[in-house]
Amino acid sequence: MITIENLSKRYETDTGYSDWILRNINLQIPSNVNVGLIGKNGAGKSTLIRLIGGLDTPSTGKITVDSRISWPMNFQGGMKGNLTGKQNAKFILRIHGIPEHELPEKLEFAQQYSELGKAFDDKINTYSSGMKSRLNFSLSLAFDFNVYLADEILSVGDAAFRKKITNSFLGENRSKNLILVSHNEATLLQMCEAGIYVKDGGAIWFDNIRDALKAYGGAR
Amino acid sequence: MPWFWIIFEPLSHVLVWLLIHTYLNIRFVPGVDVVTFFISGLLGIIMFREVVMNGMNAVSAYAGLLSYRQIKPVDCVIIRAVFRGFVIMMASIIFFTVAASIGRQAVPNEPLTVLIAYFLIWVLGLGLGMILSVIVRFMPKIQSIVTVTLRVMYFTSGAIIPITYIPNPIKEYMMMNPLAHGFESIHGGFFSAYPPAQGTSLMYLASGAVVTLFIGLFLQYHMSHRLLSK
């Protein structure tokens, strides 16, 4: 369960404060559903994901997370270009406190799942964005997170890989859940049960993603 | 290739200064080994410059890794300073070993003074790196000012010039710089024959280093959210 209370966020800029990006949001995100986060560009979806992921601090209000939560996965960042995929993976496992003797097993998993093969030992600079996000995603699956924060990352990767991810996050007895930012209606309908529509600094919860998409579609 | 530069960069500085020195046939401080004098000073000032410059640019260099909440901007500055310090330490071991093996006076007279002085110069660089990594986020142009200032420091902090022999009004200004106290202590610690400039005090350097470090930590603590956003 992720509880968001009276959350507001604006950025400090060089000339003072920005406008409110998010204003007075109260939400409870249950742990047993996949949630799609929708809204226009610049509505504050990524800001909300960053706040939930603990990368940024709210201007007011607070966020309580009582489950293990991944880092917000997106295209940019998360990797150091002049190191190999494996070195990056090792680094990320270590900063998350994985003991040294569990590293080989987790690295093996990431290599297998991402289907990078030999490229795992190449520098990240040589990776395509699809390969980078495959590695990023596979690595996060090597941890037992309860909630995965995915910012647009599912829209890359080929069909086969998308299907594999889908299988990990669907099904009856799953222990993992997604909070997914996406502009792709098909992906959202396939992956998510519930939805959050971010609009004008507010966030509206829908138990059914279809209703959320309908509200969003109506506003467009 | 990086391994080559670890040795070659300081080596090129040392060679250039030895060449100038030999060519101009300058009479040096009696009883002081000129090779060791340049090596000890140049390695110190290069370390300082590298720690400051790398610290200043650390946050943008590691921007990708800030998407993990475990990593704070200050970590990037610290790890770069540690890395640079380590690299220079490796180079120093090689330089002084080689100097000693060709019969130069490369073993310090007071090793502890020398080690403490190097360490304090490193701490000063780390503190400045922390401060500048915050400032550079708001004023990117400051980088060129820092580059020029470091260039001036290279010549005026006593790394390659015996400050004792500088005439008085200028000497007093030079000794306001904490780095000068560091390099005078290093050279005084290496050679019993070298007279450090009057008023040389490791405490002065230590105070400067600690104050700088705490200002750096204060800025990092209060401004790190600004470095993270965007």
TrEMBL record, chain A:
The keyword Hydrolase does not apply. It comes from the Bacteria. It holds the Pfam family ABC_tran. Residues 2-219 form the ABC transporter domain. Gene3D superfamilies: P-loop containing nucleotide triphosphate hydrolases (3.40.50.300). GO terms for molecular function: ABC-type transporter activity; ATP binding; ATP hydrolysis activity. Keywords: ATP-binding, Cell membrane, Membrane, Nucleotide-binding, Transport. GO terms for cellular component: membrane. The keyword Secreted does not apply. InterPro entries: AAA+_ATPase, ABC_transporter-like_ATP-bd, ABC_transporter-like_CS, ABC_transpr_TagH-like, Bact_Polysacc_Export_ATP-bd, P-loop_NTPase. Belongs to the ABC transporter superfamily. This is ABC transporter ATP-binding protein.
